Fold each of these.
Amino acid sequence: MNANPAKVEKQLYKLAKKGDLDALSALNEYYEKCVAEAKTPKESSKIRQKALKAALLGAAQNSPYWLIVVGEMYRYGVGTEKNEKKAFSYYEKAAALGDADGIVKVGRAWLNGIGVLTDYQKSLHFFEKAAEQDNSEAMILAAYQYENGKGVDVSLFMGKLRKLRKRFLSLFRRAVFSPDQLRTGSGFAMHSFMIHILQQRFIIFSVFFRQFSF
């Protein structure tokens, strides 16, 4: 966007409006750069409003990624007034499409009372649902609820914990032996970081599991 940024911005927005998600991503990157270079809060605010308007185009295409982005913008008041109920509605739309990240967002909303009243049983339901897709964040959050007795049916506790631990171990093994993560320097760094995190979480699982095994 060196020659005429305003013209290129207009072209990207036009393409995004037609459903081109690649153009939308490029437009979003441009807005992020503009925000970083903004000289006043007012200028930054106007750019964020544009970014929300653009993100809504992706949400209108039922893109789980953009539904979550819009949800986050409403949750934190980026480019708009803070509105947690609206944020939750966008998380729900992403979750309804089967997106694991969207499902986790809904679970977190029920867990922390974001746009809804806290309901531990509902949050655990969504974390377990995302865990079935091998989402490590959901596994950790479900384990947290098991450990703290939040929304847990005690009679089903040990069976679910065993199942969750088994899934987490499977995810850890795939992370360790996946060659796709090692192709680039940045990929290797992220791969090593993920292995470290998974190792720490698996240790927690193992210790906690032994405490309740009988």
Amino acid sequence: MRRAAKIDRNQPEIVKALRKAGASVQPLHSVGGGCPDLLVGFRNQNWLIEVKDGSLAPSGRKLTDAQRDWHPAWRGQVAVVLNADEALSLIVGNEASRKGGNPSGSEQKPEFGETGMPLNQHITGKAGEQ
């Protein structure tokens, strides 16, 4: 039997900020199997967002094994955010990446940083920076 899905401490704050900006938000954290935490719709675009708690040490923000398998296997967009500002930057900023999901247009397996997050999918500061 599967345990109840745990959410990151900052997920309610991120959901509130996204909804305040006019986005629709469907929590997916209970799906399990590495599926991202949120499905977000904004300006006729859909976003899959994995929430990690930016107040934790990098070791506390690592992707689980299931997430490390799921994210690169997904043939669409998926991003990891640490706070509400990053989530808003993702959906509002960077028009080029919103149009195609993968701004480079190439299919490649992501490289994982020391926290276990895919380097090409983690949003830091402005959307698209690494």
Amino acid sequence: MTNEKEITYGVRFSEPALINLILNSLEAYSVLHKNKPKGKEIRTRLETFGHLFGHIVEIDEEHKIFHVDFVNTDTSSKQNTNSVSYNEHAALLKRDAVRSFWPSYQYLGDYHTHPYEHFKKVEEIKGFHLSPGDRKEFSSNNSFWKKVEHRLSLLISIGYMDRAGTREPQYIGKGYNCIEFTLGNYRLWLSAYYSYLKKGKLVFSEDESEQIYIDCPSLVGFFWDHAPFGRVRVTQRKTEYNGKD
């Protein structure tokens, strides 16, 4: 949680963290929720909400990386098709438990999902961006998010396709903070936002901010180096790596 300045933020995931994000999103989207009352209310395509824990790597003063080590989904949140209400007590409990008994991990922030009936709707309205409601809720509960030291927010958007797709994972938008990928006939988008202080109030970064990027080798391969990297030089007698330092 910092004031806005020219800092670049990277986001990386452990393999279990990425798997949990995907599995939780798929379950909320397409498994019948038996705890929802029967009747007209839809019991699939529900939003879900959870928390991100990990550590921060400081490459230098202007480049930091959020490493998401594990993800925890709230079982006490109230889920609907177009909203999810989190429980502050659950967030505080989990933040304090991790800080007390697993101090190598930090509370990084939250994630939630945007479920859509069809993937074309996501593309049409850019549903892989935070909604005005998401931003309004975050702004209205500033004191809580400051208390837990919120830094990072992830959004998983999901829609079904008429048939299984083969499109390769790709970045969406002008920056690198949103990755589109396909699992069978599910189309998903993973978007990242950092939070910062603006006039004393915690706010989210812009939808296609170029100050935050997702580096996820599991989806897009090794895309770039985070710090200067030397080069290998080959002569007739040897092949040798020359470092940058």
